[in-house]
Design goal:
The chain is mainly alpha-helical. The chain has helices at about 5-10, 40-50, 75, 90-95, 105-125, 135-160, 190-210, 225-240, 240-255, 260-265, 305-310, 320-325, 360-375, 380-395, 405-420, 425-435, 460-465; strands at about 80-85, 275-280, 305, 325, 335-340, 355-360, 440, 450. The longest helix has 26 residues, at about 135-160.
């Protein structure tokens, strides 16, 4: 299915906007999108539909055996997890880097992202009609829709572009900013893609200054200015703009202190929002975050954490017990599994595997800022070490601060990201953006991936190329 067909599907299946109120009684084929929304409430429902689409099994969601492209798949692609004897082979083409341009799961990830973008664009279409009568609501809805649109385009970039540099003239991705099913967008460049992402985010920040009410007074389930700051910090780190990465990471750090040692474990049971900037909500029946890595209710673990990763945690590191546990399999044989998304205990006495996904946390922001300081070099390395020591002290009982510089500090920050952010959607992209070689330890096959391998950048799905001649060129090697 092409981007054009996605937009048509959004029009035809209005239930995606989460409420039947916005359905029009006219024949669906005659609707152009503008006729549906006659009140600000209609736009509210459409925005809910955009949020709902993040639960797709090829985005944040996962049923048993299916990937979630932006949660644990980056760990399977890299060196954090290896295929277990319990595997059903669902993710083998990814963990072995054997995918092709016809790979269904790659196409599905592309489609999942552009469905969210199309729903965000539908939410934005015509909302300015209510600026005079309800400006606060317009700003609140528009700010969130713009932030969603920008973030999803950036996520698509992470898989589908070859070069993350801010001013790269390499092919970018189609940036869809209007709801128009006749369009056949081109890829543009990486630079032009960044331009549009950042324009949307800066506009969103302006909108959030004039909202009718704040959206995150109870939980952290909605996009707001703090989420945009965290996203900007992440983007500028990828784009190799350390000053901006430092600026926005600091904004988040100042607003959201690191969790205490007592609070940290509770984050992963949805019992604390300490240091959580954005938490995507899952409830029973809406899938799970990491079912293909470990499904606690059926005690199935298709992938085990790598021993090198497990052994890297200090004995006093509270992250180990929050993230991993020795759980016997159904035959009583021991194995260590990821329990970061094990979630709550149900009435039958087993964890239900349903827990919210913490898409942005302060822990990441300390590591973003530390890496950005390091890139600036010179005296800024001291500030990088300060941030690394601060994070470690929050996570490790009895931690003794270190003093590192140069390559040793660079490696320490990179490995701290690996330990802190395991199964949060980062490892593959961290290795890609720093052009590292994957060397899987305790490995017998499919152990090494060189920085110039075509697998690092996913191919544009063949159906998209067939439907839209403007989207070429295909990525290198495909």
């Amino acid at each position: 299915m092409s981007i054009k067909k996605i937009i048509i599907a959004i029009l035809m299946y209005s239930s995606l906007s989460a409420c039947t109120k916005i359905l029009d009684k006219e024949p669906e084929s005659t609707l152009d999108g503008a006729e549906r929304f006659n009140s600000i409430e209609d736009y509210e429902f459409s925005l809910l539909g955009a949020y709902a689409l993040f639960r797709d099994t090829d985005y944040y969601g996962s049923f048993d055996g299916n990937s979630n492209a932006y949660v644990t798949l980056p760990d399977l692609l890299s060196d954090n997890f290896f295929e277990s004897i319990e595997s059903l082979g669902n993710e083998r083409v990814f963990s072995r880097w054997r995918y092709t341009k016809d790979e269904t799961q790659i196409e599905n990830t592309w489609l999942a992202a552009y469905r969210i973008i199309s729903q965000a664009n539908l939410t934005l279409r015509g909302i300015e009609r209510f600026e005079d009568s309800d400006p606060g609501a317009v700003n609140r809805i528009r700010g969130q829709a713009l932030a969603i649109r920008a973030m999803v385009h950036f996520d698509v970039m992470r898989y589908w572009v070859e070069d993350y540099d801010r001013n790269s003239t390499a092919p970018g991705i189609p940036y869809i900013s209007v709801f128009d099913y006749e369009q056949m967008p081109s890829r543009g460049t990486v630079k032009s893609t960044y331009d549009q992402i950042l324009q949307d985010l800066y506009t969103a920040l302006g909108n959030f200054e004039g909202v009718d009410y704040p959206v995150n007074t109870i939980d952290r389930s909605r996009m707001d200015e703090h989420v945009v700051h965290a996203l900007l910090a992440r983007i500028h780190l990828y784009a190799n703009q350390p000053d901006s990465a430092i600026k926005y990471a600091t904004m988040v750090i100042d607003e959201f202190p690191l969790a205490s040692k007592d609070q940290f474990g509770l984050i992963w049971r949805d019992a604390s929002l300490a240091e959580v900037v954005w938490s995507y909500t899952f409830t029973a029946g809406q899938g799970r975050v990491a079912g293909h890595v470990y499904a606690p209710d059926i005690n199935a673990a298709q992938y085990y954490p790598n021993l090198t990763l497990l052994q890297s945690y200090d004995p006093g590191d509270i992250r180990y017990d929050a993230y991993f546990r020795d759980v016997p399999d159904d035959y009583g044989d021991p194995r260590t599994t990821l329990v970061k998304y094990e979630a709550k205990i149900t009435q039958i006495g087993k964890p239900d595997g349903v827990v919210n996904f913490k898409a942005f946390r302060t822990g990441e922001m300390y590591l973003v800022r530390a890496e950005a300081y390091l890139r600036k070099g010179g005296a800024f390395q001291t500030l990088a070490m300060d941030d690394l020591n601060t994070l470690r002290a929050a996570r490790i009982v009895g931690y003794v601060p270190e003093s590192l510089t140069g390559p040793a500090l660079e490696e320490a920050i990179a490995f701290e990201r690996r330990k802190e952010l395991v199964a949060e959607g980062h490892r593959w992209f961290d290795l890609k953006r720093t052009t590292r070689t994957i060397n899987r330890t305790f490995c017998t096959s499919f152990c090494t991936l060189l920085p110039n391998d075509r697998a690092w950048t996913w191919p544009i799905p063949q159906p998209e190329l067939d439907a839209n001649p403007n989207i070429r060129p295909q990525n290198t090697g495909w």
